[in-house]
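This entry is set out below.
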Amino acid sequence: MTDALINSIDINKSRKGKTVLDVPANELINSVAMFFKEKNVIKLPKWSSLVKCSHANEIVPLNPDYMYYKAAAIARMLYITKSKTVGVGSIRTMFGKKERRGAQPAKFMRASGKIIRVLLQQLKENKYVENYKNKDQDVSYGLVLTSNGRTELDKIASKIAKKK
């Protein structure tokens, strides 16, 4: 009954291409991370192999390419988010997790801000992310993907959809 109802609704039949919302997140993030690595969009800082991604983590990431994956996840998050007030602080909260504290109850800790700031600066330099500014005022409210960033993510998403 419910399958027939779902199949009767015209979903995504008017659009020709696929978007980020049409593909699984893990496949998209893996593909975007490899795109960033191949095109040298993200340059790894010297300290990237020494830092933890959060105060809640016990060790540094085991994957040497974790910065590319985090940049891809940030780009995907900015694509999906409708709010134009997303900044470093809200991204830190989105990537946060609970810290294990032994016998004490677990406590939520935000992710490292330095890593997120560096990745956003590099995405801004390559014109994938920009500050959202109100037309009347010269005040920056948050971050949004540029049209260039959206098209690149959509191209990668359509390649993933074609493979399936």
In short: The two ends are 27 Å apart (CA to CA). The chain has a mean pLDDT of 89. The longest helix spans residues 147-163.
